[in-house]
Amino acid sequence: SQTIHQWPATLVQPVGSPLSLECTVEGTSNPNLYWYRQAAGRGLQLLFYSVGIGQISSEVPQNLSASRPQDRQFILSSKKLLLSDSGFYLCAWSGGNSPLHFGNGTRLTVT
Amino acid sequence: GNSVTQMEGPVTLSEEAFLTINCTYTATGYPSLFWYVQYPGEGLQLLLKATKADDKGSNKGFEATYRKETTSFHLEKGSVQVSDSAVYFCALITREELIFGTGTRLQVFP
Predict the structure, then answer these.
(1) A92–chain B Cβ distance below 8 A for any pair
(2) Per residue in B17-65, pLDDT tens?
(3) Residue B93 in contact with residue A97, Cβ under 8 Å?
(4) How far is A48 from A35, CA to CA, in rounded Å?
């Protein structure tokens, strides 16, 4: 069966520090991969999605970036965090038109 | 364009009350419709789905019927429990995109 792993679960980082969140999927090949952010009290905002290795689409301008170095690995990064980057980050995968399956999320607090 | 509109929360209910969370959509073509649930501090879990008109998705006592004539996919449960307290997201998938509603927080009190 397919599983998705996302880490770390929580992270506290100072403003201006770098960020790296990792997400891996097991049990499937060539998944579509997604990074969402959920700000406190708000809905989901799609940040990036990827349909294949090295293929990244960005939905919103920001100081975050994403990379997909391997088929089942999706990384969310930043060179310098802002206070406004605080939130709950969710990785997800899907196969074509199938539903999304989410990781457990990373709660990021930028201080 | 495609969109999903959910009723704003929070929805506050007593245990064993009847629940309805409204969801309407706008889409070209024939989307698949989903409800996701997010328990406190966790990621989203797929709750139920419907892939064509008149389909009824059900899971854990929750139901939703894909109504093409009213472009709706309302979530219902006959008797809620405290453990149902969570945020519920309506979503649609077309060939081009995946769209989530803004989420509705449900609070159930004993």
Answers:
(1) yes
(2) 999 999 999 988 888 999 999 888 788 889 999 999 999 999 999 999 9
(3) yes
(4) 5
B59: distance to nearest CA of chain A, Å? Answer: 15
| Cβ–Cβ gap B32/A97 under 8 Å | yes
Q: Give CA separation, A21 vs A8, A34, A107, in Å.
A: 7, 13, 10
The answer to whether B87 contacts chain A (CB < 8 Å) is: no
Q: Report CA torsion sign: B14, B47, A101, B2.
A: negative
Specify whether the CB–CB gap between B110 and B15 falls below 8 A. yes
CA distances in angstroms from B64 to A79, B77, B85, listed in the order given:
43, 9, 18
Between CA A27 and CA A72 the distance in angstroms is 9
> Longest C-alpha distance within chain A, in Å?
39
CB pairs under 8 A between A and B: 43
